[in-house]
Amino acid sequence: xxxxxxxxxxxxxxxxxxxxxxxxxxxxxxxxxxxxxxxxxxxxxxxxxxxxxxxxxxxxxxxxxxxxxxxxxxxxxxxxxxxxxxxxxxxxx
Length: 93
What we know:
- The protein is α+β, with helices and mostly antiparallel strands.
- It has one domain (about 5-85): Ribosomal Protein S5, domain 2 (2-Layer Sandwich), CATH 3.30.230.
- It is built from two helices and four strands.
- It has helices at about 35-55, 70-85, and strands at about 5-10, 15-20, 30-35, 60-65.
- Strands 1-2-4-3 form a four-stranded mixed sheet, with helices on one face.
- Strand 1 and strand 2 (about 15-20) form a beta hairpin.
- Helix 1 (about 35-55) crosses helix 2.
- The longest helix has 18 residues, at about 35-55.
């Protein structure tokens, strides 16, 4: 699935800014900057990875700047960024 650069989210407390870029078929690479990475970094990465794979994205570079977002917010931001990056409307499929 081809993707272009896209982003979703903010840098407000309790949110996450997710930026997605192409990765030329080299899998999903997640770069995480989080105030809670020590405690929840593995969970945040897992939510990002599983959300992208559920949406059919298997190759992307993800830059995520987390400010304490809950899993549901992370999933929503990743979904919005992926929709913008791929042009595929997952809500009306």
